[in-house]
Amino acid sequence: MAVIPKQDPVAPVDPAVAQDTVLVLDFGSQYSQLIARRVREARVYCELVPGTISADEVRRRSPRGLIFSGGPASVYDEGAPQADPALYELDLPILGVCYGMQLLAHQLGGAVKAAVRREYGHASISIDERTGIFEHLPSEIDVWMSHGDVITAIPPGFHAAAHSMNSPYAAISGPKGRYGIQFHPEVVHTPLGREILRNFLIDVCGCAGTWEPSSFIEMAVSDIRTRVGSGKVLCALSGGVDSAVAATLVHQAIGDQLTCVFVDNGLLRRAEGERVVEVMSHQRHINLVHVDATDRFLSALADVTDPEEKRRRIGRTFIEVFDTEARRLGDIDFLAQGTLYPDVIESTSHDTHNAQKIKTHHNVGGLPEDLRFQLVEPLRYLFKDEVRQVGLALGLPEDMVWRQPFPGPGLAIRIIGAVTAERLDTLRAADWVVIDEIKRSGLYRKVWQSFAILTPISSVGVMGDNRTYANVVAIRIVESDDGMTADWAKIPYDVLATISRRIVNEVAGVNRVVYDISSKPPSTIEWE
Ligand code: XMP
User: Fold this and answer.
1) Where does the GMPS ATP-PPase domain start and stop, copy by copy (predicted)?
2) 505: how many CB neighbours lie within 10 A of its CB?
3) Which terminus, N or C, of the chain has the lesser number of Cβ atoms within 10 Å?
4) Which residue among 47, 186, 195, 528 is the active-site one?
5) Is 463's pLDDT higher than 50?
6) SS3 state of residue 67
């Protein structure tokens, strides 16, 4: 038996959750995930499902309403994604956004055609009907438009709810709580977008708006108990928040039936390995197997300079070590993983299938094909910030819950060139200063990542009366929402100055510090 593949995105949901669920039907917009985030922020549980979901499946999940996302297609294109026409018989409120609105109009008997001029960017609309989704809003609002098609005739029973200079139908409303909006309420450039979504969710769909990530704990715990029964569960800890929260949830559900394995690859930051052991084993009393595999990883990496080859070797070594431990423990039925909702969406959503992989990412998830486990993924419906809230509600310490993202291959891809124990020590010491100063200045949670890189360059310096020839350390601090794009952080000069001074004074073998002022794209966040 092989690892059971990830569940289908339209797998059964727990009825406790389904009570107040809204489904976001994804027609391929780059903003679909963002709509789902905004709905959750309005404290309504929602899931993103393929736009082509069947009406039967929707009925089975008994949502309170549907949101049709935008999408790149034109409704009359051959092969353009369509909603199941039977959905309209379900009597559910529907909010169609951009392509979703055009689809609604097209399928309900209206007409859509290519606009003379593509409308993109800021626009102002006048609201003709300040009820329903526009209740309590001013009569003029700023919105963000991004569309190439327009509605030329609205479906029977519908009327214009808002208009703009370019279109008599910036928003339409119809019977049964059905709305179409030409603009994007989910982006920040539509300042009142959250109100519009909230009106739809609470007033039109009748959701309570009381969902919160911690209400998820009880449900997850009971789910895990039902699924696992008296089985044994294994969980790989990486030092990151996702695996820590997943393990803690599973432990809350089944106690000693869980064993965690922490493979210390020797590529973590200073004190991180110790912290995992202290929190998970000593504070939480979780069965923990701590494998110090530093030497094994270092010999696998000996003389390797190619970044992808480093990743491959680290991934392979991890699998070998984990595999040995799992077999030694024997008698394991389930593997718990900290898979998050964006990963689930990423692996199932049609529009991301072709997304180009820039780097091969090896996390603790890469496991041997023949390990006989079924997967337990308690976080598979949560976004990162929700996982953090769950972690806090479970009593995990703040430093663990708020840890900045850290790549699976760790410091190995922040040492440019060959990785040695000595260079790791140098980088760890410099990196410690960066984190310490960024925390001290209150910036740690404001930036996406802050770290040091050990460059392969040596430079001339002068210390006291002596000439030095020593390592150059680079500092990378970036702001980002999701790691896909990033901007270098405009850190106050005095913070940079302190970091630089401390590194040169405290870290042996470093005589120069430079700050990376490149954005992503074209640069990546990591240097390798
Ligand atoms: P890049 O360097 O591609 O990084 O701009 C984007 C985000 O991904 C992280 N990253 C990795 N994470 N394994 C990981 O688990 C990897 O091999 C890897 N490479 C980059 C990086 O830290 C940033 O947050």
Assistant:
1) 211-403
2) 10
3) N
4) 186
5) yes
6) strand
> For the sheet containing 111-127, what is the strand order?
45-50, 21-26, 65-68, 94-97, 178-181, 171-174, 159-164, 111-127, 140-153
Quote the ligand 1 centre to 303 CA distance (angstroms): 22
When pLDDT is averaged across residues 4-12 and rounded to a whole number, the result is: 37
Question: Which of 166, 236, 216 is CA-nearest to residue 382?
Answer: 216
Looking at ligand 1, which residue's alpha carbon is closest to its atom 12?
407
Domain ranges within the chain, ordered by starting residue? 22-204, 213-401, 415-515
Tally Cβ neighbours within 10 Å of residue 111: 15
Cβ atoms within 10 A of the Cβ of 137, count? Answer: 16
CA of 284 to the centre of ligand 1 (A): 29
Name the maximum alpha-carbon separation found in the chain: 87
Catalytic residue among 46, 106, 147, 184: 184
The closest residue, in CA terms, to atom 22 on ligand 1 is 407
Distance CA 479, CA 359 (A): 20
Atom of ligand 1 nearest to the CA of 406: 22
Cis amide linkage into residue 72, ω under 30° from 0? no
Mean local confidence (pLDDT), 278-298: 97
pLDDT band at 335 (very low <50, low <70, confident <90, very high): very high
- Give the per-residue SS3 of 246-281: HHHHHHHHHHHHEEEEEEECCCCCCCHHHHHHHHHH
For ligand 1, pick from 359, 416, 449, 520 the residue to mutate: most ligand atoms within 8 Å of CB: 359
Q: Does domain 213-401 have CATH number 3.90.1150.180?
A: no
* Catalytic annotation present for 184: yes
Report whether CATH 3.40.50.1950 matches the domain 22-204. Answer: no
CA-to-CA distance for 274 and 325, rounded, in angstroms? 19
Ligand 1 mutation target, pool 525, 527, 528, most atoms within 8 A of CB:
525
Model confidence pLDDT, tens digit, residues 375-431: 999 998 888 989 999 999 999 999 999 999 999 999 999 999 999 999 999 999 999
22-204 and 213-401: identical CATH topology = yes
- Arithmetic mean of pLDDT, 228-247: 96
Pocket of ligand 1 (CB under 6 A): 311, 358-359, 361-363, 405, 407-409, 449, 483, 520, 524-526
Total-model pTM? 0.79
| pLDDT tens per residue, range 243-259 | 999 999 999 999 999 99
pLDDT in tens, 194-226: 999 999 999 999 999 998 887 789 889 999 999
Q: How many CA atoms lie within 13 A of 494 on its CB side?
A: 2
